[in-house]
Design a protein that fits this description.
By secondary structure, the protein is α/β, with parallel strands linked by helices. The chain folds into 2 domains: 124 residues, Rossmann fold; 57 residues, Arc Repressor Mutant, subunit A, CATH 1.10.10.10. The chain has 9 helices and 8 strands. The strands form 2 sheets. It has a 6-stranded parallel beta sheet, sandwiched between helices. Helix 6 crosses helix 8 and helix 7 packs across helix 8. The protein is elongated, with a radius of gyration of 19 Å. Pfam families: GerE, Response_reg. GO terms for molecular function: DNA binding. InterPro entries: CheY-like_superfamily, EvgA-like, NreC/VraR/RcsB-like_REC, Sig_transdc_resp-reg_C-effctor, Sig_transdc_resp-reg_receiver, Tscrpt_reg_LuxR_C.
Length: 208
């Protein structure tokens, strides 16, 4: 008889985490072995437990789920990771794929589709649930896209705010100017901005 799929849920919204536990508790082949609120709690749990799957919220206080996913897939590639998020956007889905995740499920997804998606991921397929009205629903309000930025990209923004050129930034960070220029382009793309002037205004408005 096949063992249950062992699952860890990483989400700082307790109500959602509890709801996910209830959804999976109805199934004989799923076993939730832990709930974590952040990356520190997760890595502590991983010292003692070996899950088959991690359900990972993209945005948590103090934890960037996309960066955490990248780290997990580098160090523990055998563990499947499904990203969960309140943000329904093609941009978020694409960033999830780039992070190495095995799947993406919006938090508005119904229980039946959640369970179906998890099973398909555990069977070796990558499942990224298409956001509702994904062709048009690509913009988020209130600067929400800032959570997509990596630590390095946030660092680059600080130098841009100080008026550093790409060359000067490269010298400060001991990286190539090409790398800095690439980061700048990616930042504008992620934040859906068109110029450094817009970026600087955005950065001050959103405390970046």
């Amino acid at each position: 008889m096949k063992e249950n799929y062992k699952v860890i849920i990483v989400d700082d919204h307790q109500l959602f985490a509890d709801g996910m536990v209830r959804i999976l508790a109805d199934e004989d082949d799923f076993e939730v072995i832990g709930i974590c609120n952040n990356s520190t709690e997760l890595y502590h749990m991983l010292n003692n437990h070996k899950p088959d799957l991690i359900m990972l919220d993209i945005q948590m206080g103090g934890t960037n789920g996309l960066e955490l996913c990248c780290d997990l897939k580098k160090t523990m590639p055998q563990i499947k990771v499904i990203l969960i998020s309140m943000f329904e956007s093609i941009n978020v889905v694409n960033e999830g794929k780039n992070s190495g995740a095995n799947g993406y499920i919006p938090k508005t997804t119904d229980a039946a589709l959640v369970k179906k998606s998890i099973r398909e991921v555990m069977e070796g397929r990558d499942i990224f649930v298409k956001p509702i009205n994904s062709e048009t629903k690509v913009d988020l309000e209130g600067g929400s896209y800032a959570f997509l930025l990596s630590k390095r990209e946030r660092e680059i923004i600080l130098y841009i705010k100080k008026g550093f050129t790409s060359k000067a930034t490269a010298e400060e960070l001991n990286i190539s100017q090409f790398t800095v220029d690439t980061h700048r382009k990616n930042i504008l793309k992620k934040l859906k901005l068109n110029s450094l002037k817009e970026l600087i205004s955005y950065a001050y408005e959103n405390n970046l």
